[in-house]
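WARN no homologs supplied; continuing
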Amino acid sequence: MSKLFDCITEELQNFIAAQHLFFVGSAPLSATGHVNLSPKGLDCFRIFSPNRVGYVDLTGSGNETSAHLQENGRITFMFCAFKEPARILRLYGRGTTILSSSPDWNFLYSLFLPIPGTRQIIVADIEKIQTSCGFGVPLYEYQGQRQTLVNWATKKGEEGVREYQQQKNLASIDGLATPLSKLP
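OK structure emitted
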């Protein structure tokens, strides 16, 4: 049975903390634009308050979420249990991208473990929360986090990662600008 909540309760917070993986969904306003769904791991998600969350966003091949947030702010997070008991949790909200040049950066970044390749922090104000059964989600055994992205960023170094961002992260696949496109 699905249930709706106005805030992240202590029980939901414990469920989120127990998950090793979450998904981020966003979309442009254009009816022909591409919906983005992105898996995240590496202990990069934090709950700041019962209605505010965020995650450290690492440099990757695209920057869809950030472009979509800049255009319309809509964001959804999904957590699902891969062991018993079954459960799916969705957080619906409005998000923004925090860059290292933001006055909020130092405080927010201090709430996370430093991860090489950090590109930005995505912060969202949560408006609605929904749980559902998750009975159709298969059972999986957690083996650990992949270190490939961290190793890639470490090898590239800060300057190499910045150059990569300038080549690959300035626009979405639909041509929407990201906040990184405004940096000098």
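The mean pLDDT is 97.
OK
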